[in-house]
Amino acid sequence: MTKPFNHVAIIGLGLIGGSIGLATQAALPEARVTAFDASEDVRDRARQIGLAHEIMDTPAAAVDGADLVVLCVPVRAMGEAAAALKGALKPDAIISDVGSCKASVAEAITAALPGQTVIPAHPVAGTEHSGPDAGFAELFRNRWCILTPADDAPAAAVGQLSDFWAAMGARVEIMEAKHHDLVLAVTSHVPHLIAYTIVGTASDLEDVTRGEVIKYSAGGFRDFTRIAASDPTMWRDVFLSNKEAVLEVLQRFSEDLSALQRAIRWGDGDTLFDRFTETRAVRRSIIEEGQDDARPDFGRRDHSGAAKDQPPKN
Ligand SMILES: NC(=O)c1ccc[n+]([C@@H]2O[C@H](COP(=O)([O-])OP(=O)(O)OC[C@H]3O[C@@H](n4cnc5c(N)ncnc54)[C@H](O)[C@@H]3O)[C@@H](O)[C@H]2O)c1
Ligand SMILES: O=C(O)C(=O)C[C@]1(C(=O)O)C=C[C@@H](O)C=C1
User: What global pTM score does this model have?
Assistant: First the structure.
């Protein structure tokens, strides 16, 4: 176990920043937690619900004296958020982030803060909700947090950040940034694009079906609508920042979709049956790994902060 951080500063107090604020106060009671958000409304709300010990009105005040700074803003705002900290940081402060893609974010933060130790991270945990009221302390429990340090990153700093995320309840993995971006394009980014597409297509078809699409939506379509309700700013930024990997995975996806289309056209039941058998096995292995708690009702909070539902047992 490395030395825990004495003072954690959070920039951006939405779902992820707010959850880190709550989880840090719960898991590391000795640490001081300060924060800043660019929106005055968010800062006011964050003070009311206690997302940090102190919410400051400037980014410089929030990071003053901090030994860990976590940037929790949309990925294309990371460079600007980092630049706003210039001159206000302790020289030995570790700068991290939670962005959903890593190569472009690492580049932007490192360019904005030359000479500072930057260790990018991505907690692979979230919901379709955003904003300060969406945060909850248990979000990271038993979920992966992927760190993508540069080759020359100080091992002690990587160890300290790993221990911080372990204290948040996460399982920590180290990965190369470009590899992270390809893996997440497959497991998170393209699935979101597919959800946005099918829900958009169904909504366009409403003209033809006169309200029946929404009325009879159940099961599969409902699951897609949950994902397609995710924050537009966050996801616009993810697709534009992880363009190369997303386009590569989409190319493969459209070839596979064409193969299924062809099987349907030619009545090739074996191809369909074999594919669906393979995909069922993927689902079962995810459940066996215990990675199935991001489902629709798990982790939602009512206004008192109490959990509404627990994950159903499989
Ligand atoms: N939502 C998820 O499921 C999820 C999961 C893992 C990682 N992430 C990543 O976490 C980051 C934050 O996502 P979120 O879901 O918490 O978003 P969110 O919309 O809930 O919160 C983002 C906050 O950042 C603030 N902000 C924007 N620009 C700023 C700036 N320059 N300085 C200070 N504050 C600024 C906004 O006012 C907002 O309150 C993103 O990079 C996203 O890719 C999201
Ligand atoms: O559970 C959800 O709603 C999510 O979308 C979470 C999810 C994901 O795709 O797994 C979304 C983006 C993040 O970068 C990490 C996690």
Answer: 0.92
